[in-house]
Structure formats: C-alpha cells, structure tokens
Amino acid sequence: MNLHKLKKTFFPALFFSLIGFNGISQKTKDFHSWAATPPMGWNSWDCFGPTVTEAEVKANADYMAQYLKPYGWDYIVVDIRWYVGNDKAHGYNEKDPDYVIDQYGRFMPAVNRFPSAAGGKGFKPLADYLHSKGLKFGIHIMRGIPVIAVKQNIPIKGTNLTARDIYSDKDQCSWLHDMYTIVPGKPGAQEYYNSLFEMYASWGLDFVKIDDLSSPIYFEGEIDMIRKAINRTGRKIVLSTSPGETPIAHADHVQKNANMWRTVGDFWDSWGQLKDHFEVFERWNKWRAYGAYPDGDMLPLGHIGIRAERGDPRMTAFTKEEQYTLMTLWSIFKSPLMFGGNLPDNDPFTLSLLTNKNVLKVLNESTNNKPLFTDKNKAAWIADEPKTGAKYLAVFNTADQKLITEEKAIWNSGLIAKNSSTKSVTLEIDIRGAKKLYLVVTDGGDKTDWDHADWIEPTLYNEKGATKLTDLKWVKATSGWQKVKINQSISGNTLTVNGIKYDNGIGVHANSIIEYDLPEGYTRFKTTVGLDEACIGQNTGATVKFLVFTENPSGPLPPANEKIAVDLKSIGFPDKCVITDLWSGKEVGEFSGEFAPVINRHGAGLYKIVKVSK
After folding, report:
1. Do 464 and 555 contact (CB within 8 A), yes or no?
2. What radius of gyration, in Å, describes the C-alpha atoms of the chain?
3. Which of 65, 364, 393, 512 is deepest in the core (most CB within 10 A)?
4. What is residue 29's predicted lDDT score, i.e. its pLDDT?
5. CA-CA distance, 562 to 600, in Å (whole number)?
6. How many CB atoms lie within 10 A of CB 191?
7. Residues with Cβ within 8 Å of residue 576, at least 6 apart in sequence
8. pLDDT value at position 483?
9. Could you give the C-alpha distances from 447 to 201, 262, 309, in angstroms and in order?
C-alpha cells in the first residue's frame, strides 16, 4: 500500500499513557515469571496459513473461552503476514503483496481481513475482545524492518533517522522477503524496535512469536534489541523465537532472553517427524528452566490445512495412538502447547486430548523431567510430582516397520540435496518381466522437513509405444505428509524442478512409497527425479533419495503391541507401589519389581507411581 494513501486512514496518536504505558521508568520483574508454566494456546498457522481473518480468530477464541480456558488454555495467536491484504495459501504472495504500513515503518493489520483495525486502531479492538473473555493475545512477526519501509525511506519514530540508516540486505530471510536485517549498534536500530513494541504494548499484546530469528542463523544482536524493547514497555509480552532447530551453541543465550524457542523446523502430521522429537527433546532437556522452554512446535491436531501452507483440508493424519504419543511426550517434556487445528471443528476425541487434567498437571507441575531410556523401538521418560515422592512415568512404543530396504532397489539416485550441484537426475531402466513397480523417496537419513520431491513425466515403454504412469491407478501410495499428488507438487503447486515447470508428474514428500501393478509387455521405465522448487530455499530439509523397486521394499510389520518393561527399583520404588493410568484416570494396580504395560505400536502410556504405605 502507498504510504500517502495510508495516512488518510491511519490514526497517528496511539497514546501509551491511556493504557498504562510508562516507558523506561516502569520496573518489570524478570520476564521468565511471565510464563511460570509452559504457555498453552491456539495458533492460526496450521489451519489458515497466512490468510486468517478476524472472524476466524474470534471463532477460535470463543471456543477456547467456553471449552478450554478452565484447563489453562489462554493464548490466541495470529500467525504470519496479518499485514498483507491479498496473501494466499500454499506459499506466500510475493508477486504483488498489498502491504499495510504506518508512517513510522511499522506493519499494521490488513483491514479487509481485520475490520476492527480500521482507523489506525491496529489490533487493540481484537485484543480487547480476547481480554474480555479472559484470554491473551499474540501475533507473529518477522525480524527486521520492512523492505517497503527502506524503499520509501520512512522515518523512525522519535529520531531524525530513517529506515535506510539501520538496515542491511545481508542475511535476508531466504523463504520470505518482506524484511531486511536491522544492524545492531547502528543509531536508530534500538529505537525502531522500541517503537514497534510500544505500538504492540498499546494494542494490549501478551505474546509475540518472532520468525527468521533463530535458524539457520541465530541473530543474537537482534534478540538483545528485542529483549530490551519488550522490557521497556512495562508490559508482560511473552517472547517466542522461531524457527528451529535453534543452534544449541546459543542455548544459554536464548534461555536467558526468551520464554520459548523452537527445537525443530515446522512440525506437521508426520509420524517420522514426531518420532524425531524423542532425540531432539533429549538433546534440549537440560536447557529447560523456569519460564524458559524448548518448544517442540505447534500441535498439528484436529482440523488442519484449511488454507495452510502444507496440504489440503484434513483431520490430522496422526492415528489416535500417535496423538496420545504427541500429547504425552510434549507434557512429560514440558513443551509449550500451541494447538494448530480449527478449534470449532474439534471432535470429542480431540477435545479429550486437550482437557485431561491429570495429563496437564504433568505439563504444569512436574519437575526433574528426563528420559529414562530411548532406543529404536521404545522410550520412557520420568518426572517427579513435587513434594509427594510420587513419580510420573511416560512409556512409548515407537517400533516401526522397516519401510525401505535399499539393497533391493534396481535403481538408486544417491543423495540429492539443496546444496547438490544438480537437483535432479534422469533415469531409464529395464523392467522386462517385472510384475510390480515401486517408486520410493526416502529422507536421505536426516529429518523429513521440507523434503518435497517430484517424479517428472514418469513413463512406461514397450514396442508399441508409451504410457504415462500418471494415467494408471496405483495400488496404494503413502507420503510423509499429505496425500501423493498427480500433476502437482505435494504442496498443491505446479511441479517445478531446476526452475522448470512441468505439467505431468507426481509430487510426494519423504518418506514415500507408490506401488503399481505393471501391465504386461512393458520393458522400460523412464523419468526425471528431483527436488521440488518449493523446498530449495527453506532452512531445513530438502535432502532425499529416489529409488525404484520391482519387489516390495518393506520389511515385516512389528507386532500391534508390546510389553515395555520398567525396573521400578531403579526409579526409586524398591517396595510395593500403586500405579494409576493418567489418561484414563483408573488405577492399574499394585506392583513391585517391574512394571510392564502393554503399549500399542506408535502409542503411549502415562502413569503416576505412588509408594504403598507400610
């Protein structure tokens, strides 16, 4: 939006004295006390991406106030690009974004999406609505100063300087180009962040999630400026840094300056990503402190993908067992809980996951949380119930079928990564006599984040001619997240490899297996494989292998359930104890020596253990 046009509608006098803003003179307690327990709330990203509207925010707030607030849920967070009037799902509109910005270079809410922001009111009316329901208001922002503010040379409030005096185009975000870096130490840099948070405080902000701040580059100088700016307002604004994984070399700094920080990239409804959290949480466990929480990212549960970046509208792809694992692991680790689904669409099961007082007590009150053991098929965590001598025990069955035995492949691309010299490979192989064809993509042995992979123009040949594989029906197809797409990338966009767009092909996300019955008489298979353009610029993932098989690449399924034994003496119970199942609330019985609950595959159990009085 043109700055001159905005001046006609922007109300410039946001007087902080009206809402109790006292500037530097007001003393604030240590900011860690503002999040004495892990923050619990709702975030718009998983269901609405960068397109959420005021009506949708209010609908989720109304649901939270009615059904979740009694259980401790109270944050409502508007995620990315609320300042763009014409953004879109499945990626961002960077072609012609309709920015809304004020006369001091600060983004304002898009009035077509947030009508109550009209007249320069900003988010104050929406925050007031949430506060009236006993809830707290949060927003997402990108670090830095808007590129449009630099181009228009907009002044910095309270100074004789402009945006051009404090910016650098170095280290600009690779996946969204709204902002430039603010250079720490430059005159006007701190003043810009001060003016930003003065405005947010005047709106009544309680929570801010700041993106492109911690990975792949950890911007320590900007975090320091943000910390000072928040403290200066005198308002208790909880600080969440994003994305992940935050470099662990900076763990001490982030713990001392933020209330929560991401431990992973964007987390979606993929079992592989969920299983990765066992290793990640073990790595970050020692860095949890009072008011400072390693953050496993949002909970992709309930109705997600409505207008999201990843995938189509769906109820979470996690099975019920996997949902129990997610909530159990996040609770025993004490990660913040930010629900990602559209709350009004919750079914009874989803609501039950969020309102179990026994489980939430573990999240909010347990101490000395730590892993007991972790291996490829099972894991367990323990924690203390303060002052009682009781312990909490979480047990997980993580056993997996070996999906892909690479040695069976008739063709293997080797590792293809975003830093590879080539992002694609063309193959033509003999399939004479084969009855089956399996197209497989693995995550290359690392995390599954952003592993968008394309099979371009896959074609079968015989003496009479050719048949496009996309014209045949597969037997079955799996993908790391979202359903396999025909003639689209996995994110629903045009198939794009090495900058070239293709009409024909298959879009998947690692790990993926597509199984076909081959018609008789075909002797050759030809295709080009490569990373889809959507993942190249991301800060995580984009590392895959493509493989072709003519026999089932997978190993046998593990048992449906297993006993997972825990030595009670080793965790402080040498004599009899009573064990209660916290998910059901039912007493399991008295035990001594060993406790070995039967846990379903990909499932979890959460228990309280109490000594039997002699």
Report:
1. no
2. 26
3. 512
4. 64
5. 7
6. 18
7. 590, 591, 592, 611, 612
8. 87
9. 38, 15, 19
